[in-house]
Amino acid sequence: MISETATTHVFDATTDSFESTVLQKSLQTPVLVDFWAEWCGPCKQLGPILEKLAGEYHGAFELAKVDVDKEPQLGAAFQVRSIPTVFLVKDGQLLDGFPGVLPEGQIREFLKHHGIEPAPPAEPEDAAPAEAAPLDPHAEAARLRAELAAAPDQDELKLDLALALVQTGATGEAEQLLDSLPANLAVDDRAQRARARLVFAALLEGAPPAEVLEQALAANSDDLRARHLLGVHHIVGGRPEAGLEQFIEMLSRDRGFEDGLPRKALIDAFRIVDDAALVGRYRRRMSSLLF
């Protein structure tokens, strides 16, 4: 049913591949799951609309196609009673869905309701910009202060300055700037990354030093509160793998600790850590423990 114009963001999901291609993928990108069949007339109306949107949204969501005749176990697992039926999976969880054929405009509204907006087209590989030299956050903050003083209504400059201030440790001022952002920038990936850094920094206010926490864990390896704070110390202190390892250990010992704190700590850390390969490895480990 996938048309010739379908993009790389449309794929067939099977029972065997569902965990890796849908659940794990949804930890990074929302996945629409379209349950359909060859004999289903309404499915042939809905499918091209979904595939068209998957192309136009340029990877803001992925579209997984499930043929219920070939994958009856998946249909039963999702309690699909009629087709077409579409579900939205995000962060490894079933979030929402709808049965039947909806007009394209309503599907766009459904996606928008869940924070899914079209992404810009990916740049060609040969057009990738040269890697920039790392900036001094203090110098960058000073430069952005001057620009913001000259153009105080430029909200993008406020976000840029907040990010620089987080790097310098001026968390109070950074938080005030983030709080002043309009709604469209408040949900920007950069703003969310800054928020996650602020959360981690706040956790360390008045917390024991890393050495004390390590001693506490040596005495009691099940002290998940100490393990959490030690992981935060490592992330903030520039040791991301050591921090992620502490959070993974928390998840393996008690995934429900303090209303799911181990999973939340991992997701916040994924927003902060810049090493994509490291994040990918620990996302897979998290997924294997959760599912």
Structural features, described:
With 291 residues, this protein is of the alpha/beta class. The protein has three domains: 10-118, 3-Layer(aba) Sandwich (Glutaredoxin), CATH 3.40.30; 137-203; 210-290, Alpha Horseshoe (Serine Threonine Protein Phosphatase 5, Tetratricopeptide repeat), CATH 1.25.40.10. 55% of the residues lie in helices and 10% in strands. It has helices spanning 18-24, 41-56, 72-77, 104-113, 137-150, 155-168, 171-179, 183-186, 189-203, 210-219, 224-236, 240-253, 261-272, 276-290, and strands spanning 10-12, 31-36, 62-67, 85-90, 93-99. The chain has a five-stranded mixed sheet, with helices on both faces. The radius of gyration is 22 Å and the shape is flat. The protein starts with 9 loop residues before the first strand and ends with a helix.
